[in-house]
Here is the input.
Amino acid sequence: MGMSVTISVATEQDAEQIFRLQYLCFQSEAALYGNYRIDPLVQTLDSVRQEVASDCVFVARLGEEVVGSVRGKATEDGTAAIGKLCVHPRLQGHGIGARLLRAAEAALAEERGATRFRLFTGHRSEGNLRLYRRSGYETVGRSKGTDGVEMIILEKRAGTYAATA
Here is the structure.
């Protein structure tokens, strides 16, 4: 491949690539649930721009191309919500998602005072659940997303990492 994937903080200039990548990546989730109105597919470019400006957003790059992204936002109680983790389909299964997740967790803990991380994934999203459990997350509940999809809520304390890679 010649180039390696790098992880960095997203910039304003990345918003459009993040928006397009998110739309591509969440097609498989939409198909899994038979619902093409899931939140990541109906989010606007302006909303993505706002998140890049205010939240903790990381991207994975292969050269100039954004091939992965994750967002996090800390709340006053020390819980950080992590969401919209996605990796280009052609690069999935190579640890990029785990690297993005670790980068977001580290920044949220160190820069924004997060003491706990929370994320949601669809109940049929086995690949996502495997990644999150390998990363030390545990199921703490279920909820119904605004798009009607049943979501599993997972959490872990800051500084908790999986025992295996």
User: Anything to note?
Assistant: Residues 40 and 57 are 15 Å apart (CA to CA).
